[in-house]
Each structure stands twice: as structure tokens, then as C-alpha cells.
Amino acid sequence: MTSLLRIAFAILAVLFSLAAFAGPEEDVDALLSRMHEASKNADVGYFDLFAVDAVFFGTDLWERWTKPEFEALYRPYMESGRGWEFKMRDRRIDLQPGGDIALFDETLFSESFGPCRGSGAARLDDGAWTIVRYHLDITIPNDVVDDVVPLISAFEASRVELMSFNIRFGTADDDEDSWPNRREDVAALIRAELPDVLGLQEALRFQIDELIERCPGYDWVGVGRDDGESAGEHAPMLYRTDRVRLIKHGTFWFSETPDEPGSATYGNTIPRICTWAIFEPTGDSEAQRFGVANVHLDHQSASSREWSVRQLLGFVAPWAGTPTFLMGDFNTGPDSAPIRDIAGKGWSNTAETPAPTFNGFNDNATGEMIDFIFAPEGLAVDEWEIIDDRGKDGRWPSDHLPVRAIVRLTPQR
Fold first, then answer.
1. Is 347 helix (H, G, I), strand (E, B) or coil?
2. Is the pLDDT of residue 376 over 90?
3. 208 and 233 in contact (C-beta within 8 Å)?
4. Counting beta carbons within 10 angstroms of the beta carbon of residue 56, is it exposed (0 to 12), middle (13 to 18) or buried (19 or more)?
5. Residue (of 355, 302, 334, 358) closest to 168 by Cα position
6. 253: number of Cβ within 10 Å
7. By the 8 A CB rule, do 176 and 395 touch?
8. How far apart are the C-alpha atoms of 68 and 57, rounded to whole Å?
9. Burial category of 122 from C-beta neighbours within 10 Å (exposed 0-12, middle 13-18, buried 19 and up)
10. 336: nearest Cα among 359, 317, 308
11. Which residues pair with 221 in a beta bridge?
12. pLDDT in tens, 310-325
């Protein structure tokens, strides 16, 4: 009996020894298990399992959150006592050369989503493993792909992603913020966001050409405000040819002679224009057509801005059966008379919380929101953003912050 006890104690000693010296794969395995347990129990310690520079990718294409963004969104959800449960079915962990990075993938099951896959990377910092990337995907069986893809196409065709961006005219002497130093940053921002329709302001013809060259898949419409061709600033619209089809387009001048290039009769000393277009989504023959009007109103004359908005609203009034979006640099704030006029005619600011959009190439935008995307009332805004991303060298892409919105094209019941 004494001999059996010695053997049992020896076995226990070995087991404790193995537990004490668990390998990195076991540590990462335990980390992922704690993550799932915390989410199931609505334990806010969940967020401590992610590195400070972690990124979480959700199941929707646009769902890419940094840790602060993800925590701001879901900590209140957890604090209300709600969590989410994914049961792990199997897991693979591959330690990378150097021993401080581990790649993983796991098959999961959710009562809400069915079979899923999680994948990502963990990193060893100061003796502790944390998650630096996590991708959550809803898997689609190959046998039903032909049924699912049309549903996705129809859904994507039911909404549009818009962006408005004053890129600062390219001949301005802005020292280190001059166009040649910002060009790649502006193009990179467009490629990162990939809006379906992008309205630019202050764009000169050579800037448009350079952006089109650097942003494959886009075409554009618009004219120069000085001569109706290529001279002067444009208010062009760039559009993704794989996402929308151009039906018709044009440009008019904010003046009593709207078809006369270069005209200005509302108190502004330089011409102001609106470039407009009608589009229809590709990929769905029954998709809703929509209109977009892109403007750059005067920066000095309040009277010009008021008359210009009245003209704009009169121009789009006949499009009542076509959802029409108004966007651009309005050079006036949310509480001004022109913006109140727009709201009074049935449009809403897609930005739920207005914030300054002019920063003058400085770190802090000041003043009011002057760049807008307005959607017809009744259309759901799935997402909106005032983009405050810097370029690769820490430089601001422009002296304005771009604004973007994803909006449903049909009223939601």
C-alpha cells in the first residue's frame, strides 16, 4: 500500500510539474478559452485579454474595430449584463519562429449564427499572452453559396456608401502641406474607404487625374467652374464602376444664369457650382436609382449660401420619386439658415453627432461642422463617420476632414 501511495504521489508530482511548465501553445489555448468564457458571462475583464493595439474584425465587411473602438461599443453592452456565447469545437495554434507570436484558428458554434470560424494572432509581451487580432467569420457551406450570393448582392444594392471630401486646391502654397506631399495620403484614404460615390471639393483637373490614376475602379464626372470645361476648381463626383452605373449627370452654377459657366450673381465674388448625377446600383436589376448633388458653397457671402441652397432645393425638387443625397462643403454650420432650409424640406444630416470638419492642417478641428452628407428623411443610416485619419507620415491629408455615410436606399418599415 505504501508503494502504491509513493507511485500515486509521483504521478501527481509529474502532473503538477507539467502544468507548471505548460508550453506557449497551452498558454494561448487557455487565453482563448478565457476570452470565450468572459464573453459568455458578460465579464468586462474580456477586454483585458486583448493587446492595446488589438484589432477585432466582425462578421460584416465594415466591422473593423481597434481595441478602444471595440470596447467603447461593447463594454456598455456587457455592463448591462448581456454577453455572447460561441462554443469552441476545435482549435489549432501555430507558434511562429521567435516564440512570441502565435497564429490560431478555431471552429465555433453559436445559437444565433450557427457554425462560425475565429482566427487571429496572439502575442507574448512581458511574459503574458494577449490577443492582437481576432477575426470572426460566419461560414457558408459550399452547397448553398449559389443561394446566398444573390441575397448578399441584393442587400448591397439596397444601400450606398457616400463620402464628401474637400481636398484643398492643388496649387495652394501650403509649405509642407502642399499637394505633392499630400497626394498619396488622399489617394490612400480613398482606397481604404472605397466609397461608392465620392464628392470632392476644390479639386483642380490635375488633382482629379492623379487620383483617378491612383484609385483603380473609379470614373468621374464634373467640369471646371471657370469655363465649364477644365479651368478652375471642380466639384467632381468619383464613382465605383463595379458598384454603381451612371445614368445621367450635369453641372450648374449658383447664379441667376445657372447654365452660364463662370456666372456669379448672389453676392459671391467667385463662381460656385453643383455637380449632380443619377446612379443605379449594379448587380440587381430591381435596385433603387438614386441622385447625388455635390456642392461647394461660398466661404464669404451668407446671402450667396442662402440663395444657393434655395436654388439647389428647387433643382432637385422634380426628383421626388428618386432618393437624392445632398453633400459637400457648405461653409456654414448646422444651425445656419441654409442648413435649416435643407432640414425643412425633408433632409437629415447623416452625422448623428455633428463635429467640426475644418482643421486647417492642425491637430484639432475647430468651429462647426461645415461638410455634410444629407439623406432624405426616412432612409436608415447604417453607418456614419467623420474621418480623422492621418497619412503615413503623420500629415493630415487635407485641411478638411472627410465625412462618410452608408445609407439604405429604401425606407425601412
1. strand
2. yes
3. no
4. buried
5. 358
6. 23
7. yes
8. 13
9. buried
10. 308
11. 237
12. 999 999 999 988 999 9
